[in-house]
Amino acid sequence: MNQTRGGFFRVPIVVTLISSISILAGFILLLASIYSFVVFSQPVMLLPSIFGILLVVVGYFLYKGRNWARFGEIIILVALSIISLVAIYIPELGEVIGKIKYIGGLLLLPLPILGISLIVILLLILHKQTAQYFKYIGEVGTISYRLNKKPKDSQEAPEQTIYNRPPAAGGVRINPTSAQTYRKPGEPYSETILREGMRRPGMQQPLGTSIPQDNKTMIGRKVETASSPSYILYHPNESIRVVNEIYRIFGREDFERFVNPLEAQPISRRSSGGHFRITMSLNQINDEVNYYIEDLDSSNGTKVNGVEIKGKGKTRLNHSDVITIGKSVKVEFKTL
User: Fold this and answer.
1) Which of 43, 46, 59, 161 is the least buried, fewest Cβ under 10 Å from its Cβ?
2) Would you say residue 283 lies in a domain?
3) Which DSSP state fits 335?
């Protein structure tokens, strides 16, 4: 099974196999129950159809990664094993099961039923990739796509971005989406408390934190002269705004709230070191604020305008540069 840091690209083969067999067995049991009811005209023949419906439903949601379906499958298998054992000692029950066409005879064989049930239960509980799959789906939820409605009475012209500017010849145009408007804060840089354990100029640096300094990054009084340096990472669904941060590490946690989980999977988590970092620097000659991006040895790399920057250190960022994160998530870097 292909996977990135904590992410899965496809359902484990064990889950696919068990869910397929469960759905198939459910349909066979349901049809056999209905057919037996028509032939013998006995309402009791419809009781196995309940198990058939349960097997189909549980098998479907088992494939979707629902943890309750995993335990539901185990309960159904245990119930069928008990019924097979009891049918041997209760003639009336054995007679009913024996009349169920095509599958009734199998239910009267307790040892094969017990063996198959035990193997399936052990796979659902002990198989490593299966357990990781259910845990992962439980954390991120079932893969779905977020739909965003455009405001009907919006009179504001959409901002020109990579998502709505005219395409090149032969290109594909993405539906335009109005950009979010942001209010620039008026407070100076020195009055803004930085997140991620950062500090304001003049404050004592917290223990256990470090701020990278090099010949491109100035930390001190010169930065206070900048008028609220800020930027956004623009995406049609939602944009991330960063104000007055000397550097910021971005990871999956920043993007998974507005992109679908399948797109977010290739992005490395901040808890694992992050995917990329954007650093603010100040030109000592003209007090111009510049920005640089650096890939943090992520699993799937980072591109700027289609050029891979993984392993190349810091790369200069310009207004409207397109950043490709992981495999498919694209955002536009826009200074404010």
Assistant:
1) 43
2) yes
3) E
Q: Identify which of 147, 148, 140, 134 has the alpha carbon closest to the alpha carbon of residue 265.
A: 140
Could you give the CA distance from residue 173 to residue 14 in angstroms, rounded to a whole number? 40
d(CA 278, CA 248): 6
Q: Which of 100, 115, 140 is the last residue of a domain?
A: 140
Picking from 121, 140, 159, the residue at the C-terminal end of a domain is 140
Task: Give CA–CA dist 321/331, Å, rounded.
Answer: 9
Q: Tell which residue, 159, 75, 163, has the closest CA to residue 121.
A: 75
Domain that holds residue 328: 217-335
Token representation of residue 106 = 């199998």
Q: Is residue 196 part of a domain?
A: no
Q: Which amino acid, one-letter code, is at 231?
A: Y
Does 162 fall in a domain?
A: no
Number of domains within the chain = 2
Q: Are residues 21 and 129 in the same domain?
A: yes
Separation between Cα atoms, residue 156 and residue 153, nearest integer Å: 9
Question: Taking each helix axis from N to C terminus, what angle separates 67-89 and 48-63, rounded to the nearest 10 degrees?
Answer: 150
- Report d(CA 228, CA 336) in Å as an integer: 9
Task: List Cα–Cα distances, 265 to 8, 118, 137, 143, 274, in angstroms.
Answer: 7, 33, 11, 11, 13
Interaxial angle between packed helices 13-40 and 128-140, expressed in degrees from 0 to 180 and rounded to the nearest 10: 90
**Residue 329's beta-bridge partner residues?**
325
Three-state SS string over 305-333 comes to: CCEECCCCCCEEECCCEEEEECCCEEEEE
Q: Quick: pLDDT tens for 20-76.
A: 999 999 998 899 889 888 888 888 888 888 999 999 999 999 998 888 999 999 999
Report pLDDT digits (tens) over 234-256. Answer: 998 888 988 878 889 999 999 98
